[in-house]
Design brief:
Blueprint lengths: L1 E6 L6 H4 L2 H8 L4 E6 L12 E2 L9 E2 L1 H11 L7 E10 L2 H8 L3 E6 L7 H6 L3 E4 L9 H12 L9 H5 L18 E2 L2 E2 L9 H19 L11 H19 L1
Parallel strand pairs: 1-2, 1-6, 5-6, 5-7
Antiparallel strand pairs: 3-4, 8-9
Helix pairs in contact: 4-6, 8-9
């Protein structure tokens, strides 16, 4: 697949694209990332991409002309999805990341200042994407998060595809605890079940620890998670124990 990112600060992506998993995946041509300067699509001597908002509010807003021109020049197909990075958008999730990874091309627009002319939102982008309920100085950091998250769903980018499937949130739960050598560190020991060699028991332990952690830290996720009857019985047991601890 291919990402085309539209920004007024293309230099921000230089380091991000040249390290770690992203660099290796690009080197293997598993996916491509192209960063484009919005000013290259602006008219006039000063290549102005923003202007004051109608209505007299503070700040500056991206003009529609350069944004439309950039997208129309970069789109390989009318069906290519275009997304605006915005705190008002659809929350980035594993489902959305997998959806984007299935596209041959995705165009990302990095907003700045007070936002983008509403005609871009209404008539050009498929949707807006948010990485959280907070405001950044621009969409560049959000675009990096989107690219990094989506890349993990592109076949071949992560060595073991099953590791992506069991990551936090992929199954609607937080991840189970992880341990490595040494077995005993300053008296803090690895749970015996993990060195038992009994893979069925280990799998059960991991599932229950994931449920336990999700119940403690993000109980809201359990409302949408695919839970078995055994999972639900275990969660009821956890809730009962928690109530008894509070009473005591």
């Amino acid at each position: 697949m291919r990402f085309d990112i539209i920004t007024i600060f293309p230099e921000m992506f230089a380091g991000f694209l040249e390290v770690g998993l992203i660099r290796r995946a690009r080197k293997k041509t598993l996916f491509e990332v192209y960063v484009h300067n919005l000013r290259d699509y602006a008219r006039g001597k000063h290549r102005q991409v923003d202007d004051r908002p109608f209505g007299g509010d503070e700040g500056m807003v991206f003009k529609p002309e350069p944004v439309f021109a950039a997208v129309e020049a970069l789109r390989e197909s009318p069906q290519t999805p275009v997304y605006l990075l915005s705190p008002q958008g659809r929350r980035l999730s594993p489902a959305l990341a997998a959806e984007l990874a299935a596209q041959p091309q995705v165009v990302l627009i990095c907003g700045r200042y007070e936002g983008v002319d509403e005609r871009v939102v209404q008539h050009l982008v498929r949707d807006e994407i948010s990485i959280g309920d907070y405001v950044l100085s621009g969409g560049e950091l959000a675009a990096m998060v989107v690219v990094d998250t989506v890349s993990r769903f592109v076949p071949g980018v992560v060595g073991k595809s099953e590791s992506v499937a069991r990551e936090s949130f992929s199954q609607g739960l937080l991840d189970f605890p992880q341990y490595t050598r040494p077995r005993d560190f300053r008296g803090m020991k690895v749970p015996p079940v993990l060195i038992s060699g009994d893979h069925r028991t280990i799998a059960q332990w991991r599932r229950r620890k994931a449920l336990e952690k999700t119940e403690a830290k993000r109980p809201d996720l359990l409302e949408q998670a695919a839970l078995t009857a055994d999972d639900r019985r275990f969660l009821e047991h956890i809730k009962k124990d928690n109530k008894e601890r509070k009473k005591s």
